Amino acid sequence: MRILARYLTSASDPARFPAPSLPEVAFLGRSNVGKSSVINSLAGSKLARTSSTPGRTRSINFFELRRAGQPKPELMFVDLPGYGYAKVSREISDQWASFVDPYLQQRSNLALCLALVDSNIPPQASDRQLIDFLDSTRRSYVIVATKSDRLSGNELQRALQALRHEYGGTGAPIVPFSARTGAGQDDLWKHILGACEKHQPAAIPRLG
Ligand code: GTP
Ligand code: MG
Fold first, then answer.
1. How many CB atoms lie within 10 A of CB 39?
2. How far apart are CA 191 and CA 76, in angstroms?
3. Residue 108, pLDDT score
4. What does the alpha-carbon distance between residue 176 and residue 120 come to, in Å, rounded to a whole number?
5. For helices 185-199 and 35-43, what crossing angle results, to 10°?
6. Which of 37, 156, 175, 157 minimizes the C-alpha distance to 112?
7. What is the whole-number distance in angstroms between the Cα of residue 118 and the centre of ligand 1?
8. 28: CB partners within 8 A, 6+ apart
9. Residue identifier of the C-alpha nearest atom 26 of ligand 1
10. Which of 64, 120, 136, 148 minimizes the number of CB atoms within 10 Å of its CB?
């Protein structure tokens, strides 16, 4: 599937968010978990800035996407600042309170949240907080286990088992993903298009 995507705008103040229109998919997770990389991988182009320095994404970045062959933009990807990294945690938690939180609670066109967790490390307390927060907002979300290429087949199975043990009770799907190899792309796109279609039935035609 070929995707045409462009950066739309960046905002750190709810008053400057673009007017809600297309269904949106929000990318959430700790600093450095791979949010911007997953966005670039799904879009098939370098849209979002990635970095090995945690806390690179400081404001909310909005990207507009459509599948090749579709006449109009169909959905938005929203890259949110990371949280929970010791060095930047205070600042980040202030940011969460001031604009990420209201975004997740109030954004009317938010169709799906992607809660990214690193498949290479055990479930973290800060990830649990995010999941609990998403449950409290009643948003639908998918758990994305990032950087799966760094694990062997057996290690990945064990990591997924640990995630199912921790988050299975939420009923959220868990999708292993690698921005490096593209593993998990089709599965994640299905969740995204399914949620966007449900959110605005007229905007997203059914897949093939
Ligand atoms: P912040 O914007 O700081 O919150 O980080 P982020 O969550 O957007 O992470 P980003 O996409 O910038 O990636 C962080 C680091 O992880 C970079 O060095 C990436 O190259 C690396 N990385 C991301 N995804 C993958 C992956 O699928 N596989 C591997 N091996 N490395 C990855
Ligand atoms: Mg980022």
1. 27
2. 14
3. 93
4. 11
5. 90
6. 175
7. 10
8. 35, 80, 104, 113, 114, 115, 116, 130, 134
9. 147
10. 136
CA-CA distances (angstroms) from residue 84 to 13, 75, 110, 124?
21, 28, 23, 10
Instruction: Check if 180 has its Cβ closer than 6 Å to any atom of ligand 1.
Output: yes
Give the residue extent of every domain in the chain.
3-199
- What is the pLDDT, as a whole number, of residue 101? 82
User: What are the backbone angles phi and psi of residue 16, rounded to the nearest 5°?
Assistant: -105, 5
Does residue 64 contact residue 1 with C-beta atoms inside 8 Å? no
Class of domain 3-199: alpha beta
Could you read off the pLDDT of 97-146 as tens digits, one per residue?
677 888 888 999 999 999 999 999 999 988 998 898 899 889 999 999 99
Q: Strand 141-146 to strand 75-79: parallel, antiparallel, or no bridges (unpaired)?
A: unpaired
CA 115 to chain centre: 6
Query: Which residue's CA is minimally distant from atom 30 of ligand 1?
Result: 147
Q: Whose CA is nearest to atom 5 of ligand 1?
A: 32
Helix (H) or strand (E) holding 60: strand 60-67
Structure tokens at 89: 């945690």
